Amino acid sequence: MTLTLQIVQFVLIISILVILHEMGHFFPAKYFKTKVEKFYLFFDVKFSLFKKKIGDTEYGIGWLPLGGYVKIAGMIDESMDTEQMKQEPQPWEFRSKPAWQRLIIMTGGVIVNFLLAWVIYTVLLFSNGDTYIPSDSLKYGIVVDSIGEQLGLRTGDQILMVDDKKTRKFNEAVLDIILGDEVTVKRDGREITVPLSDEGKETVFATQGKNFLGYRSKAIIAKVQPNSVAEKAGLMPGDEIKGVNGVDTQYWDEFRSKIGASANQKLDISVLRNGSTEHLELTVPDEGIIGIELDLTDLRVTDNYNFLEAIPAGFKRTIQVLTDQIRQFKVIFNTKTGAYKQVKGPIGIVELMSPTWDWVYFFNFMAMFSVWLAFLNILPIPALDGGHVMFLLYEIISGRKPSEKVLETGQIIGFVILMGLMAVVFGNDIWNIIKKFL
């Protein structure tokens, strides 16, 4: 059921983004009186699941869920319909329109993707505010595992800067560390700068970064699961765990580590409740989970925005997401980090979806993915929107159109590049699935 829900969310997000992206091409084309022959969600290789012609345009749904397209008359695109290009240009064809109109048509999809992300982030900030954990004022510092230690970090460190830039939010600091060259921390009262090695990053990516860096917090209980080991032992929301078997246990990571290493053992848990200390006994089950959730109230901060404030804040968030995505290529193309092995395709992305239906997560993911699609589509690779834009800019600057032969060759080269990238991405997905069963 969980996997089904994740697939449904992913397909719904992709469908919405593809339709809106293609509308970004469709409406400018119609406005400039350019004939649009097809408007498709997914690709209709050989056949389509649904199609209906309205006016000059055939609307349909293909069977191959790898995107979508609009086929514009008089344009060399992925359909490679060269027969049409051999005919005399018609006034309603793409090739007959002024270069500036063609440029607007080709950039329309990317613009819609960017604007959609801006709108989503604006609405989310206005309705929910921005809740985060500050990285520069963590009360108890960070907590790292052996992978984090390999990067040069230590539990209790306080992150001050990454690459001489202050990081305001903890989740941004984590990304900055993965993408950065050095981090400045406060350790034992001293400021020290730790170089971030490619070898350490390789380990982070090889393990998909699980738990290599977290934030330290007091072991205060927010919620106790019904019928859990914790509830049966008498633990309650608001309890602050102070020790296990007489050993001082101040922090959540210390308590979690003790629980995880004590399967089938009886533990004496000392808790601070209403100003007094109480002792409770419980036996840790095989899976090492006792059924409590952590209270992070003392660490979280929420910035609230009115609507006018949310608009520029939403724009800033969109730009930040775009910038972070561009920066990721720094480590992806650095073969020493092994980050390229973790690039995810549709199969891997499905696993990132929420196992429950969470509208905030849904729209946050949609906005992030919308920015990602905008960035990928504007890359100057023939067969992508950016490839068409590249040739159009050449035409506008030089005053000469590229020959149809050049456009056709570029389209073929771009198609081969994209197929190669897709093969790598799907190969990573399949290999990661296989590794789970090895």
TrEMBL record:
Enzyme Commission number: 3.4.24.-
Keywords linked to the UniProt accession: Hydrolase, Membrane, Metal-binding, Metalloprotease, Protease, Transmembrane, Transmembrane helix, Zinc
Cofactors demanded by this protein: Zn(2+)
Origin superkingdom: Bacteria
UniProt cross-references to Pfam families, sorted A to Z: PDZ_6 (PF17820), Peptidase_M50 (PF02163)
Bilayer topology annotation: Multi-pass membrane protein
Transmembrane segments: 7-27, 103-126, 359-381, 412-434
A single BP term in Gene Ontology: proteolysis
Domain PDZ residues, every copy: 191-250
First-listed, main subcellular location of the protein, grouped into a coarse class: membrane
Places the protein is found: Membrane
Keyword Nucleotide-binding in annotation: no
Enzyme class: hydrolase
Family: Belongs to the peptidase M50B family.
PANTHER family: MEMBRANE METALLOPROTEASE ARASP2, CHLOROPLASTIC-RELATED (PTHR42837:SF2), REGULATOR OF SIGMA-E PROTEASE RSEP (PTHR42837)
Protein name listed in UniProt: Zinc metalloprotease
Organism: Arenibacter troitsensis
